[in-house]
Amino acid sequence: MANETYAINIAELVVYVILFPLATVVAFRHGFKKSSGWVYLGIFTAIRIASSALGIANYHNPTNQSNLVWYSILSGLAISPLLLASKGLLSRVNESCQSNLRIRIIRALSIPNLLALVLSIVGGTRLDSSNTSTQSQGKHLTQAGIIIFLVIFVLICAITILTWTSIGSIPGGEQRIFFAVLLALPFIFVRILYSILTDFLDNSTFRLFNGSAMVHLWMAIIEEIIVAIVYIAVGLTTSSVKGDRGPKQLQYQMVPV
Question: Which residues of the chain have pLDDT under 70?
Answer without folding.
Answer: 1, 33-36, 241-257
